[in-house]
Amino acid sequence: MNLNKVILIGRLTRDPEIRSLPSGQPICSFGLATNRVFVDKSGQKQEQTEFHNIVLFGKLAEIASQYLKRGSLAMIEGRIRTRNWQDQSGNQRSRTEIVAERMQLGPRAAGRVVPLAEPEEQIPSQEEIPIIEENEDEIDVKNIPF
Fold it and tell me: How far apart are CA 79 and CA 68, in angstroms?
């Protein structure tokens, strides 16, 4: 059995960039930073940041470009993909990306970005945060077999 699944919660490092493929399908990309806090062997608290390249297609791309901006908190669920190509100089290049299949937007902070607190200090939001899926289709009651 094989599984390629990634779930990330972090903040955007740059504003989403939207463009269209030759087929007309929207594609959006941005950077996402995730932090890991741990205690090293000497007992010192350390923080490590990872940077991820995120790619979204279709409706997800449109929603991300409309509602997200640099510093926004978002949860991305998707799969890892590594692309290889040859640049104009003839050099082999590669890029590892997360292709998003689901996205959940973080809480709005009245037009400003609020720093993320330690997990034990976070207060749950009273506002319901919508989950947006890539292939969200209307369910017709007539098509349910029972």
Answer: 20
Residue 40 lies in a domain: yes
Structural domain range at position 55: 6-136
Kindly report each contact of residues 36-45 with a partner whose C-beta sits within 8 Å and lies 24 or more positions away, as own/partner.
37/118
82: CB partners within 8 A, 6+ apart: 94, 95, 96, 97
User: pLDDT (tens digit, 9 = 90+) per residue, 22-60?
Assistant: 999 999 999 999 999 999 999 999 999 999 999 999 999
Q: pLDDT tens digit string along 81-97?
A: 999 999 999 999 999 99
> What is the count of structural domains for the chain?
1
Buried b (16+ CB within 10 A) or exposed e, 120-143: eeeeeeeeeeeebebeeeeeeeee
The helix (run of H) or strand (run of E) holding residue 75 is strand 73-86
Instruction: Write the burial class of residue 68 (CB in 10 Å: 0-12 exposed, 13-18 middle, 19+ buried).
Output: buried
- Taking the mean position of all CA atoms in its chain, how far away is CA 9? 7
**Alpha carbon distances (Å) from 28 to 33, 65, 77, 86, 124:** 17, 7, 15, 22, 29
